[in-house]
Design brief:
- By secondary structure, the chain is of the alpha/beta class.
- It contains three helices and 24 strands.
- A hairpin with a 2-residue loop joins strand 2 and strand 3.
- The protein is elongated.
- The relative contact order is 0.08.
């Protein structure tokens, strides 16, 4: 699988194409009047406006009449199963400061490819009818005020590859089946989840994963080694992780960012870390690691930033160009 960034670039090119089509190939009046998909979209968006309680920037002031393809933030394109029919392919209302909730009627947008409503003030749960969004590839509801348990509906969206629900108020357990989804990117950080990393954690094919600022019990499973072919960045900071780092992290030779700072991890650093040949940023600060720092870390060819301050390491300290011992005994920091 290509890296997350390549996949994201390819998909954004696809989205740009959708936007250009939406701008240049507006459906004919006859299509608007006789197109059941646009009629369904009109019903869905009208229902959504009734669930909005505040729109200070008047983003939805254009949401009037049957021509939904002219609505601000709504993007139309030929339908994926019939290029002669126009349909709503994307919604982008990011940074709009809209408040309200999401109605079940949004499930009528069955051809939706991307749904971006990050940085608003939406509340409540996700609609169960999102299971009908068979083509949905990107779901970004980050930086809102959604609440309730983990949105199980995302587990049943077949085409989903990018899931971003960070900075909300979701709480409770995270289902282990999340890590079986064929995602390219997973962001669930800064919620109120309480869970343990399951044994199938390593089944996730993501390139980027951020789980920080939740309550995670236990340790990193050894199955993390199974992520070696796809994983580029992993950040699990400030979660309460315990135990040692598994020896298997040495298999992660494509990882560029590894951040497990502000946890309660302990023990010595695995000597297998010498296998993490793509590492550029290694952040281990504010844990309970002990022993010596392996000299093999100095040999990682791409490492630019190494912070292991506020642990219980002791000398001899490796003579790395990017590491500096602090004055406090047993604590030092890399740069």
């Amino acid at each position: 699988m290509a890296s997350y960034y390549l996949d994201l670039l390819i998909h954004w090119v696809f989205i740009v194409v959708i936007l250009l089509i939406s701008l240049k190939l507006k459906p004919l009046e006859s299509q608007k009047l006789n197109n059941p998909r646009l009629m369904q979209a009109h019903a869905a968006l009208e229902a959504w406006t009734h669930c909005m309680t505040s729109d200070p920037n008047k983003i939805t002031s254009t949401w009037s009449g049957p021509n939904v393809c002219n609505y601000t933030g709504i993007y139309c394109a030929p339908a994926p199963d019939d290029s002669t029919i126009f349909t709503v392919a994307g919604i982008d209302l990011k940074n709009a400061n809209i408040s309200g909730s999401l109605p079940e009627d949004l499930g009528l947008l069955t051809d939706l490819d991307f749904f971006h409503i990050n940085s608003n003030r939406f509340t409540g749960p996700l609609p169960e009818n999102f299971t009908k969004l068979a083509y949905l590839y990107e779901l970004d509801i980050s930086f809102n005020q959604f609440s309730g348990p983990f949105p199980q509906v995302v587990l049943a969206i077949p085409s989903l590859r990018y899931l971003d629900i960070r900075f909300n108020n979701f709480a409770g357990d995270v289902p282990s089946s999340l890590f079986d989804l064929k995602l390219d990117a997973l962001f669930i950080n800064n919620n109120k989840f309480q869970f343990s990393l399951p044994q199938n954690f390593g089944n996730s094919p993501v390139s980027v994963m951020i789980l920080s600022n939740n309550d995670i019990k236990g340790s990193i499973p050894s199955s993390v080694a199974k992520m070696k072919d796809t994983l580029n960045e992993i950040i699990i900071s400030n979660t309460g992780l315990t135990g040692p780092l598994p020896q298997e992290i040495g298999y992660l030779d494509k990882v560029t960012v590894f951040d497990v700072s502000f946890n309660r991890l302990e023990g010595e650093l695995p000597g297998t870390m010498q296998g993490m040949k793509s590492l550029e940023q290694l952040v281990l600060k504010h844990n309970n690691f002990s022993g010596v720092v392996p000299t093999s870390i100095c040999m990682l060819p791409k490492l630019k930033h190494f912070d292991c301050s506020n642990n219980y390491f002791h000398g001899p300290f490796p003579k790395c160009p990017f590491i500096k011992r602090k004055h406090n005994p047993g604590k030092f920091m890399g740069f």
